[in-house]
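Today's session is about reading a structure prediction critically. Students often jump straight to the picture, but the first step is always the sequence itself: look for stretches that repeat, for charged clusters, for runs of hydrophobic residues. Only then move on to the predicted structure, which in these notes is written as discrete structure tokens rather than atom positions. Here is the chain we will use throughout the hour.
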Amino acid sequence: MAKTLLEQLRQFTVVVADTGDIQAIEAFTPQDTTTNPSLITAAAQMPQYQPIVDQTLQAAREELGEQATPEDVAKLAFDRLAIGFGLQILQIVPGRVSTEVDARLSYDTQATIDKARYLISQYEQAGISRERVLIKIASTWEGIKAAEVLEKEGIHCNLTLLFGFHQAIACAEAGVTLISPFVGRILDWYKKETGKDYVGAEDPGVQSVTQIYNYYKKFGYKTEVMGASFRNISEIRELAGCDLLTISPKLLEQLQETEADLPRKLDPDQAATLDIVKIPMDKANFEKMHAEDAMASEKLTEGIQGFTKALELLEQLLIQRLTQLEGQSTLEHAAEDIFRVYDHDGDGFITREEWAGTDAVFDAIDINHDGKISPDEIAVGLGAAFRLVEA
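Below is the predicted structure for this chain, in token form.
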């Protein structure tokens, strides 16, 4: 009997679900699950997860008291919500969940360390061992140095928004548990820059992950490589054999429905035979290589900005839901405030480029799928996600 691509992939790669949608995780039974601010924001807008949002807000209000402002309550609930989703996910997956540090701390080593310790403490208070949690941190120099400290404390890290070889080397030398190179976003940059289409092994994102994987295996680094942000199953097939691959529900479904041969492309024994030169990495060399890599520089900045926007949107949504729970209706004002944040050119629409975040959130709000978000769609999206208590 023929096997599906997903069945074959699982023979030599750990399959991870890249989603905050608990129902999707249940459908595909991955080993681990990754989340990020955009995915949590998208999930928080789904009516079936409103109880998690409400419970988190009510607990934050109870902890801070009636005198606290909605903004203060939302800030406390913000981290707790990611943990709330994480706790639900860990009831389903046998392995680990990745929970992300606030992207706005990406260039502050100590603040990143403090936030990571807080997140782990919350999981541990809920009875979850730190061995089942990966703290996601942006792959800035400051983030990598924070991860180096955290790993020595037994707090395992997943370094995300990784686009350049220099980032990967620095992560390995810092002893981080896992890295997440963004395959699809690398491809996006090269397609826009060159106007070319890339197929199979020619895909720049595939080549990046292959180079990192071979380098790690050649020199015996323990850091695991988890390819992320895929645009199609061709990229996944070219990286069969990578330590882990985190895949969206849509692509997991395609893999599950496709029957075809899947040869292993990445292999540690083969990597060990390659002629590769080891590159020393310190802050000066990191900054030099980063400045010379236009793609990595642009995509890292863009990624941090995109996740920051998702965080700001989530905070607005939490404030709005709290006011609804407490009998104040400010839906229209919230929609207007959110719209102004994203409509940079003031033309009355938010384009995908202005959004600069994850496609999952954009697509969830773009009701008519015309590639732009109107003020009405923002308002409807908020209303669908956070229904008024009186209804």
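Discussion point for the tutorial: The beta strands are 14-18, 32-34, 97-100, 133-138, 157-162, 178-181, 224-227, 244-247, 350-351, 372-373.
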